[in-house]
Amino acid sequence: MVTQYKNLINGEMVTTGEWLDVVNPANEEVIGQVPACGQGELDKAVAAARAAFKTWKNTPIEERRAAIMAISGAIKENADELYRLLTSEQGKPHDQAKGEIYGAAGMSAAQSTLELAEEITEDSDTRLSRTRRVPVGVVGGIVPWNFPVMMAVQKIAPAMLSGCTIVLKPSPFTPLTTLRIAELIADKVPAGVVNIITGEDDLGPMITAHPDIDKITFTGSTATGKKIMEGASADLKRITLELGGNDASIVMPDADPKKVAEQLFWASFSNAGQICVAAKRTYIHEDIYDELSQAIADYAKNITVGDGAQQGTGVGPIQNKKQYDRVVELISDAKDNGYKFLTGGDVDPSGTGYYVPITILDNPPEDARIVAEEQFGPVMPLMKFSTEEEAIARANASEYGLAGAVWTADTDNGVKIAEQLETGTVWVNEFLHLSPFAPFGGHKQSGFGAEYGTEGLKEFTYPQVITVKKDNVVA
Fold first, then answer.
1. pLDDT-based confidence at 473, cuts 50/70/90?
2. 200 noted as active-site residue
3. What is the pTM of this model?
4. Checking CA distances to 127, which of 292, 335, 414, 461 falls within 20 to 30 Å?
5. Mean pLDDT computed over 442-470
6. How far apart are CA 308 and CA 219, in angstroms?
């Protein structure tokens, strides 16, 4: 029997009577059902959040921190159950799913410690002026399918800490683990502060358009982000958009191919390449290109593509059929254009599950779709460059600007290169590291605003300046 999961509205687990099927991408079997919410359920969730906001915004900060820590504790205490459920709906191998669950617990706990201190802007003989941060109000959070739990808590935790309340919509592809967490925290958070509802893609625009939602925080594609920005403009909702990326890695000639091959592989192929900050374009200096490209291809041959629930799987399936078809289309385009493959490229459409073999391309042209577009799958184009200036220019020649990486034995020069890349985050000799205390956000068409750290927390607030004239007291 398929398990039916409930939504969290005003502190209670509720259903609608209409259900959506959730499919395991490894075998295409239905593994759960979730409520199909529409405008009525959204209105109830928003009304609950609005009512709760009146009290929550005045709740002492230490009580808000404690509620966030209770969420973190519930996730950590139930990690074994949650990571297995996450693999079944998302597809990532158990070790990566476990990393997401424990990461979500740790990230929310860390974010609960952030401070928004008041700033004294004037303290003179005549006046005292201070700037404080006040919560925006009711937040609408829209979460993607690639990291459904991590992306949920990175919206819930700062919203709660700032004094906001939230209505969260998981992706219809991966709502199960989030709804199980909702059940675990229903009695740990005041009613209405956190509401989690599920629905088809049309629920997102309803959230964006809702007149009683004050802010939208969204993680997903740039195309959808533009629609959200347009919809939110009708009543000037505040927005935070973490969008797509076509992230470049630059490997300098002094990098040791034997040491960096494995790291470069996982920079691209973790979570089957379905990471906004995965290395999607890898530029390798011509002096080490042949040796390093072969070392990456050789490493790939030892990685098993399969069901994430099976021991030994390194790369799981694409999460959903729509994305699977897009990745297959990009690979087919590369084959039609005669680009050279170091490994992979042959997709079996007759099999069960959304599997794409690890695919590495050998120096395709810069205007190839597989290079110019965000693949979001287990595909890595390797490109050869001659000079540092050339590599920087090619890395920057993108409408995106989310993240990037530089690999070199000369870390000082690596930093100089990093400072010339037009992205919100750049790593030197590592990849995929995000800190709860450092802002994360994109440049250009990769986003609007920031998440994490104090900068991310400020996104859920307005600045309010209070000025007192000292020598003008009215009796």
1. low
2. no
3. 0.96
4. 461
5. 96
6. 24
